[in-house]
Amino acid sequence: MSKKGVTFLADALILVICLVGFYHVWQKAGRPMVFYPNSLIIEKVYSARFDVDVFNGEKVLSVNEYKIDTQEDLEFILDGLNIGDKVDLEIVKNGDIRFTELTLIPFYNLRYLIPQILLGLFFFVIADFVFAKRSFQIEAIVFHWIMMSCTVMIFTTWGNYSSESNAKRVHKVI
User: Fold this and answer.
1) Domain boundaries, position 87
2) 3-state DSSP assignment of residue 86
3) Mean pLDDT throughout 110-133?
4) pLDDT for the residue 171
5) 172 pLDDT exceeds 70?
6) What CATH number corresponds to the domain at position 75?
7) How confident is the model at residue 49 (pLDDT cuts 50, 70, 90)?
8) How much is the average pLDDT of 36-59?
9) Is residue 68 domain-shared with residue 123, that is, in the same domain?
10) Same domain, 156 and 126
């Protein structure tokens, strides 16, 4: 097989990896609420679209019995869960602590997913087009691999990387 054939075979493998990465981004679980910046106090709840028992102004203390101090702690826990999973929240408002259950929603919507797939495919197609036309030039080869690296970053970043076997496992926040 020629060097060009091996490169296109590697590109096909990269495309499969990218599609798996896109699936994980599509499956990333989110929360049906928005927090005030740098806090765990709820600013807005999407209660019109989702059945939630949390309200504006409440502060989240823990998720699935794991204390959280920052929004990053919460995201870390949610990254190991799936859309539709239920989490137990400990919430406080005016000194009153209560517990409730929350169903996770999709983190990304189509306004994010469609541009992601279009941009990723754009980088992929341009990389292969330039390589197909100029595979004998070192600049084209370097350009091809830089574009493929960008394609992988676009498709595999910010996803849910849990599997069916560990979807229910919750990561302990240290």
Assistant:
1) 29-106
2) strand
3) 96
4) 43
5) no
6) 2.30.42.10
7) low
8) 77
9) no
10) yes
**Domains identified in the chain, total number:** 2
Asked if 133 and 96 sit in the same domain, the reply is no
Domain boundary among 73, 106, 139: 106
Extract the runs of DSSP E, i.e. beta strands, from the chain. Answer: 29-30, 33-35, 42-45, 59-63, 66-67, 86-93, 96-103, 105-106
What pLDDT, on a 0 to 100 scale, did the predictor assign at position 167? 39
> Given 88, 106, 124, which residue is the final one in a domain?
106
Which of 110, 21, 33, 28 is CA-nearest to residue 71? 33
pLDDT at 161 over 80: no
- The whole-angstrom separation of Cα 172 and Cα 170 is 6
Token pair 């075979």 is at which residue?
9
Give the residue among 135, 170, 152 at the shortest CA–CA distance from 3.
135
Q: Among candidates 78, 80, 84, which has minimal Cα distance to 35? A: 78
Q: Is residue 173 part of a domain?
A: no
Cβ-Cβ contacts under 8 Å for 171 (sequence gap 6 or more): 76, 77, 79, 80
Whether 171 is in a domain gets the answer no
- pLDDT, residue 33, reads 86
| C-alpha to C-alpha distance for 56 and 44, rounded to whole angstroms | 6
